[in-house]
Amino acid sequence: MNRVEDDKSRFVTLASEIVSAYVSNNHVQSADLPKLLNDIHGAIRGVCVGAPAVAAPNKPSAQEIRRSVTPDFLISFEDGKPYKTLRRHLTLRGLTPEAYRAKWGLDAAYPMTAQSYSEQRSQLARSLGLGQQRRKSAAPAAEPEEPAPAPTKKRGARRKEDA
């Protein structure tokens, strides 16, 4: 066996051990195992050979972008999972909304929050009266304020007449 075949064998063995350890502690769909194994193997080979470990992500097609936006959730191009809002998800991955849009070639108008979630939060804000302070202070007062009631005598205070 020559050196190249020996390296390939070691890479496969190491990748299978890493995937085995990962799968024993994390839930992975059986359909995702080949991709996971291939990704780990490529990363190991890239580190050892000196090739880039991670290739640039493929830009999604216009159809994939349209499918990623639904009324109830947005599908992340980072992990393929649905989210009501992408901001926290992206922050945990070290991305800003602008960086995410640039990375995946998305338009600047690409939403970061699902439409139904935005409407739900908007209704909640309206029901709580948020944003109504300007209207209340700008409206003229209809009735003048009533004078404050006369102060009452303090407890324990003695009047001159009682003394």
UniProtKB/TrEMBL annotation:
<feature type="compositionally biased region" description="Basic residues">
    <location>
        <begin position="152"/>
        <end position="163"/>
    </location>
</feature>
<dbReference type="Pfam" id="PF05443">
    <property type="entry name" value="ROS_MUCR"/>
</dbReference>
<comment type="similarity">
    <text>Belongs to the ros/MucR family.</text>
</comment>
<feature type="region of interest" description="Disordered">
    <location>
        <begin position="118"/>
        <end position="163"/>
    </location>
</feature>
<protein>
    <submittedName>
        <fullName>MucR family transcriptional regulator</fullName>
    </submittedName>
</protein>
<dbReference type="InterPro" id="IPR041920">
    <property type="entry name" value="ROS/MUCR_sf"/>
</dbReference>
<dbReference type="InterPro" id="IPR008807">
    <property type="entry name" value="ROS_MUCR"/>
</dbReference>
